[in-house]
Amino acid sequence: MTEIELKVFLDVTRNFFEKLGSAPVSLGAPSLRFDAPPLHDFTGLIELGGSTAGFVCITMPRAMLSALLLAVGERASGDVALADMVGEVANIVASNARAALGTSIEISHPTAIMGSKNGPMLPAPTFITPVFWNEHVGHLILALESA
Q1: Where are the beta strands (DSSP E) in 51-146?
Q2: Taking phi first (over 0 means left), then psi (-120 to 50 degrees means alpha), and beta for anything else, what does residue 83 get?
Q3: Are the C-beta atoms of 86 and 112 separated by less than 8 Å?
Q4: Which residues are bridge partners to 129 per DSSP?
Q5: 136 has pLDDT over 90
């Protein structure tokens, strides 16, 4: 993954939360990991292909997703609504990054994963960035390589 690609994904993630307007967002420093990344209660997964291949994941605890649903005006708060929301966030981040990086990147439909032990096998290394929003912490996980 290039520095430009990393910056684009960080910017679109920050922009998503900033547009909610309900609470400030900040991103921690990305860290490089070679083992399985830690996951929260819900994870949205997008697979990328084309000129940039790999995976984009957004993982959030239940309370963060519940606050996110309220921020977008959604009253449902069950597991289905939370899974839909995390998948939608991953899709928005991947789609906006694709728009910035070029249409030669293909993105899959989002997959929502419930539970911290049911995560995908991501190729190493991964970049993990904390996302601090509304007194919660989620993570952006990128496992990308240029084709």
Answers
A1: 52-60, 105-107, 111-114, 126-133, 136-146
A2: alpha
A3: yes
A4: 140
A5: yes
**Tally of CB atoms within 10 A around 39:** 20
pLDDT reading at 120 higher than 80: no
Asked if 138 contacts 59 with a C-beta cutoff of 8 angstroms, the reply is yes
d(CA 96, CA 4): 14
Task: Identify the band that residue 147 occupies on the pLDDT scale cut at 50, 70 and 90.
Answer: low
Three-class SS state of 96: helix
Q: Which of 77, 88, 78 is nearest to 20 (CA)?
A: 88
- What Å distances lie between residue 4 and 1, 97, 111, 133, CA to CA? 8, 11, 26, 24
Report which secondary-structure segment, H or E, holds 47: strand 42-50
Secondary element (H or E) of residue 15:
helix 3-20
Q: What is the DSSP letter of 115?
A: S
